[in-house]
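On to my pick:
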Amino acid sequence: MKTPIKDYLSEIVESVRPDESGEVADYIPTLAEANPDRLALAMTTVSGRTYTAGDTDTEFTIQSMSKPFAYAAAITEHGKDKIDSIVGTEPSGEAFNELSLEQGTHRPKNPMINVGALAINQFVCQPGANWKTRTKHMVGLLSTLAGRKLRVDYDAYESEMDSAHRNMSIAHMLAAYGFIETTPHDAVRGYTAQCSVLVNTRDVAMMTAVLANGGVNPVTNQTVLGRSVVRRVLSVMAIAGMYDEAGEWFTEVGIPAKSGVAGGLLGALPGQAGLAAFSPRLNDHGNSVRSIAIFRKLSEDLGLHLMDADAIGSRALRGTRVSNGRSIIEIQGPVNFTAAEIVLNRLATSTPSESEVVFDVSRVGVVNPVGRTLILEAMRRLSHEGKEILFYDPEGVLPNPDMGEGLLPVILQDAP
């Protein structure tokens, strides 16, 4: 059976493609030359599976999507208390390139805006390290997160340095308040190089899945970041990751996220998946128009808002077995998107060879609308592959199991 998840992601991409509003970031020469029609979406689950749609192999510079990972590196290297003395955790309510400082302490309000990120870049490795050393450390961390070797696009870096006047002025102000340990020029170089790392949406989805998985790479099982570090990073992303659009974003979409002016957008849903979208046209807040539309659609369709009270179904597949010539799929617990995806993946990677397939949901407590749709779609696709579908649901947790196209499973009265 072919899993329907990739088809669904492709439908989302195509649904937002007609939207040509917004403009590319023309204040950075290399970004001004970007193809505005590029569009991509990738999802990596905490089980380590990646689903993609669109131009997912197209590379672009990570830009401000690097900020959560730099913040994580700084906390890991120097500890929470030290980093808290350098940068706050409050939303600024201002544009990403404003000099948003706290009264009294003069520290940047949060690490997701430029002034905070310039300060944080000073602390991503050992104290006093120059920009080249800091860049090497950040590229190493981002590569570990992505699961492949990444590199800095030095053409983009030089282009951004040529127009980095505002960031340079911010760095001088930070130096005046004692938050720059090297020099303002070195600070801007390090931050700009960090933002110039080349990635694609597959990379970003995998990097974000590490955050969603509590700091553990879901493919290699390597612990990259501590759980307490990840919790703090995701919390700050939730309140400040989308700049002066952060409040509306979290209220409407409910996914801790971070955007970049190249058109990238990442989001981490704890315990479920890392998400990444890419489309170069930006709105007035500096966030990708079509990437935002994609995330809104995902959140609405799949019930991904963090404040929704769905339980997580990470152990949904109790097992598969063969009995009396039938393949029996035993599902348990609450069935939401994550739970259904686990079942679908098993069916996609190990399609039952028996002619009769039984879906046993006798141990399921509740099925949300997304879980229902995906399970029924799996049944429909197996039916199209010539399987006879049987259904055992003694508690009626999935009533009226219409697979579509007039297809209904054979209802079993006794346990298979």
